[in-house]
Amino acid sequence: MNSLRKKKDYNEFEKEYRDVQKEKDDPLKGSAMDFVKKYFISSVLNDYSLDRDDFENAFEFSLSTSEYLVAAALISSFKHEEDKNLSDCYNLKVRYNLMDNLLEHLDSEKLIEKMKSNNDRFYPYVIIFYMIKEMNKHKDNTKYYFDLKNFLNEYSHLFGQSGKNIFWSVILTYCGIKKLGTEKDIFAKESFGIYKHILENNVYKKSDKEDFNIVLFRNIVMCASALSEYVWLEDFINRYSNELPINHRDNMKHFSLAYLCFAKEQFDKALEHIIKIKYDLFMYKIDIKMLLLKIYYELKYFEQAYSTVDSTVHYLKNTKDQSDNFKGYFMNFIKYFRELLKIKTNENYSKNDLEFLENEIEEEFSGGWLLKKVKELVK
Question: How many Cβ atoms are within 10 Å of 195's Cβ, its own excluded?
Fold first, then answer.
């Protein structure tokens, strides 16, 4: 467009601009990059208007260029809270940065309220990223989570596939953290509902050309398995596993089938699939060890279970791949699993021992496989 402007080929310039405006399926629509792109287009339109002595439109385009940059800066800064959230998961330190500095000295609530009252065209974009920031900053207040979900549904049409993918990924990260706490059951179901939504609406990838993200695939498998949604899970594996990156496809298939077989209580088959998995990703290591513990328990392979407990504790104490929060969750699981093993292999256990263990697990995990196994012994 700028080249055409310099040649004073204004007819072609306007035709090119009309073509740009017709682009409806941009996967980056509504993102910071989209506003940066619009900044450049608006800058060219400003120069074009000045060339044509159209000072009114030149002034408007000049305003727009600045607005696009400010909008991109705001939503990037608000999204930074999510980046810090991920850094906690992977035990990474966050250095001083301009985004934190900006937000620390910005009255965000007053800014957004003014945008809303003036029907600011950037309000839907800014409010969503602001809610992301607040949700991650105040993790214990689930109001921000549910408000964000409502805004995403209300303004979904303003964003492209990539933006929607990022939003639901942010939501799922939050659910993953909440599943480590006392609201595990609620957010396990929340996660499963979101997984179904992103698959049904084709926003599980940033673009159709990309592979299925292996972390997302793994999370879907584990969630559906934990909820015993094995009919749905089997259909999911059959339908989407061929979209996985070729170098991880076989591993993920065996990983997924191991969890599927476990959910269907086919413990021997689950073990067969686990043996075929290559430990080339750190995320496999703890997942497989935790599943192995459950399988050995179900198959009454108690000697192997005790051995796996020891190797898992050793791994968690020495690995730097997991955050302290995740390590703490897994170490607690192993602590209670070890107690469960002791009771299971001791015919002289008392009812008081079981009741004490049941109460501790209920308080710590609020449900799940461990509590189910204790309740079976109580009966």
Answer: 23
- Looking up tokens 């009114």 gives 56
Mean pLDDT of 9-31: 86
Cα 357 from chain centroid (whole Å):
33
How many Å apart are CA 79 and CA 169, to the nearest integer? 12
Residue 136 amino acid letter: N
Of 253, 274, 277, residue with least CA distance to 262: 274
Identify residue 203 by its one-letter amino acid code: V
Specify if 334 maps to a domain.
Answer: yes
Domain assignment present for 317: yes
Angle at 134 between CA 130 and CA 136, to 5 degrees: 120
The residues near 372 (Cβ < 8 Å, ≥ 6 apart) are none
Segment 127-151 shows an average pLDDT of 93
Tell me the H-state helices in the chain: 2-6, 10-21, 32-51, 55-89, 98-104, 108-117, 123-137, 143-154, 161-178, 184-200, 214-226, 230-240, 249-263, 267-275, 282-298, 302-318, 324-344, 351-365, 369-378
Q: Is residue 28 part of a domain?
A: no
- Please give the tally of structural domains in the chain: 1
Instruction: Give the domain extent around 315.
Output: 301-379
Rounded to two decimals, the pTM is 0.78
Give the pLDDT of residue 69.
96
Q: Would you say residue 325 lies in a domain?
A: yes
Give pLDDT, residue 366.
62
> Could you tell me which of 221, 214, 226 has the C-alpha nearest to residue 281?
214
Q: What pLDDT shows up at residue 297?
A: 96
Q: What angle do CA 303, 308, 312 make, to 5 degrees?
A: 155
Tell me what pLDDT residue 114 has: 97
Per-position b or e across 96-131, b if 16+ CB within 10 A of its CB: eeebeebbeeeebeeebeebeeeebebbbbbbbbbb
CA contacts within 13 A on the Cβ side of 319: 22
- What is 312-356 written as a DSSP string? HHHHHHH-SSS-HHHHHHHHHHHHHHHHHHHHHT-TT--HHHHHH
